[in-house]
Amino acid sequence: MQPIIDFLLIQPIINILVVFYHGLTFLHIPYALGFSIVLLTVTIRLILYPLTTKQLQVSKKMQELAPHLNTIKTKHKGDMKKQQEATMALYKQHNVNPAAGCIPGVVQIVVLLFGLYPTLQKILSLSPKATLAYVNHLVYVPSLHLTQIWDTHFLGVLLGKTPAQLISVVGPIILIIPLATAAFQFIQSKMMVPPTPKGAVVVKKDAKQDDFATTFQKQSMYLLPVMIGFFSWNFSIGLSLYWNTFSLFGIIQQYLVSGLGGFEGWLKKPELKK
Q: What distance in Å separates the CA atoms of residue 62 and residue 68, rounded to the nearest whole number?
């Protein structure tokens, strides 16, 4: 299984990274490895752009159908068969296929978890000699071989070190990295929530009325960014650089497909009562 993953994912990623590195080095751009990671991440996101867009479009349609689905649940309460029939009829009427949003998500997870993440993790954790041998073994053509190991510094910090390791050297300013990671994740999660329609009346529900999925979604919107921010405290700077670039691109794509979503209300000034 691992040789297949290496051939299909890791080897192409390494080659793209090395091409960017050679190009930036030729142009005498400082911190070439760090900027190569940024360019690599953007390239992966551009390749996955059509799949991600499809997933976001399906998600948006499902959010628009949520009130109709709630009506079906209420109308056919206790009759699962009729609920399923009415739900399928609704999907057919609006030309929505919920499964169409799952496949792109699975592809993205495979590429990121089995390709991009382990590749960066490996090249940032190996010794210089081992990194040189590893990279040169995977590049397609001899002209891409590294003659010397790349500099792992980026804007004054080592890409292979974690914020936890660097705080005693750099100081509290290093906290910007995990805080930014958490903030980007929260913004993206909030944008996925549909905005409250203008003039809509917010009805207070009893806690018992909220189903498990709704409660989980509300809690994860706040807990997930905190958890990812905490994890990034012990992630190498290189991995955080990839993750934050990935999240920023995701925020831009989310905005282009479905707007600000639930984050729009956070940007508007509250109206003063007369």
A: 10
